[in-house]
Amino acid sequence: MSSGCPPQSPAVAKTEVSLEGESPMLAATFAYWDNILGPRVRHIWAPRSEEPLLLSDGEITFLANHTLNGEILRSAECGAVDVKFFVLAEKGVIIVSLIFDGELKGDKNTCALSLILPQTELPFYLPLHTVCVERLKHIIRKGRIWMKKGYSIVSVLTSEIVPIMELLASMKAHSVPEDIHIKDTVLNDDDIGDSCHEDFLHKAISSHLQTCGCSMVVGSNPDKVNKIVRTLCLFLTPAERKCSRLCRAESSFRYDTGLFVQGLLKDSTGSFVLPFRQVLYSPYPTTHIDVDVNTVKQMPPCHEHTYNQRRYMRSELSALWKAASEDDIGPETVIHADETFTPDLNVFQDVMHKDTLVKSFLDEVFLLKPGLGLRSTFLAQFLLLLHRRALTLLKYIEDETQKGKKPFRSLRSLKADLDLPVEGDLSIVMAMAEKLKAGLHSFVFGKSFYTSVQERDVLMSF
After folding, report:
1. Which of 14, 156, 216, 337 could cross-link 44 (Cys pair, CB 3.0–4.6 Å)?
2. Would you tell me the crossing angle of helices 357-365 and 374-401 to the nearest 10 degrees?
3. What is the pTM of this model?
């Protein structure tokens, strides 16, 4: 494989990352186009391993150069990040490359941030592709500001590349399987009161569906945490289950942005530190479930979550632009640069809306005998019902608004016509529809900044 590969330049710096378990990633690289020397690799990140890697440093440099060939005539909007996916069968690798413009030494250059994985890991990586790309896109936005100010982009990129390498390594060993047996979940129990309080299970599943299937399960007992994780994953698609993670008995994982369901263990003191920034940057709002004290809390609905997320992103980039030195802004710093925006650190609220859909499902599913496959069939029918209701809601809104040409005016009529009078039922079906058509919440509820909290305040004033 090394034949024809140019030797690695001695100027290329390399960071070795210590990971627990098997790493599915060969390396990550940051390269740029030099107008005199052509493609040049600025930095390499590789997992530390006692065994020799499949690719030498020279071959990694060769593959990184490959992603920039042909980009000299790149024409893109300012700030755009192009995502390219290369499958090089002759080398046995896949390369995910994010192409962007940045300033190096005062000159505008075309740059590439690339992830290199073995081709055999393609089925494993594809479900996680969007998770990785969205996280890397935002770190590139921050890095471009750092480059503009003349600082090193490597430290900024390292703050996200290392966690992504840790994420992929953890998912390799502890991801939720695509097929879950109902016998491994709470839904198989004969007496729900023995292992999980009925009201707690109802509230957990209901909130889980209201937050688009995104939940974190926190506790001290890994078996109990993982049982709830598998139970919630029953309500996800097979692809979404591949983006979910069980907790590890030996030690706790950190919270990772972008996963659907993840189990997290408390430390020896019985506490768990939840990073505000990572939670806010999740694509959907999240449900927080504590199996030790049987509490369920949830983030605000999609339109409010998206609005707060975008405001925080802009404030974070603004704070970076105003920073006087590289040490002024840390990766976990809560941003207060915009005086008009003070982030609410208490992002989790009590579950406000009761539902009848999940309540009826749980009342009926435990009437069926366990172990005969009846409960699995009943669950499949329940999910099919939710999916059809979401499609019906989308079609209803399309007809009422002439496919978005007119504003949506009557939520009351929608609830009456679609038989969704209970707020919790509407929230569940709206969340299912949001995953089918992104932006639905913001469109239905009008101005995105008219948040659910403000709506409740207005209703209470009458």
Report:
1. 14
2. 160
3. 0.87
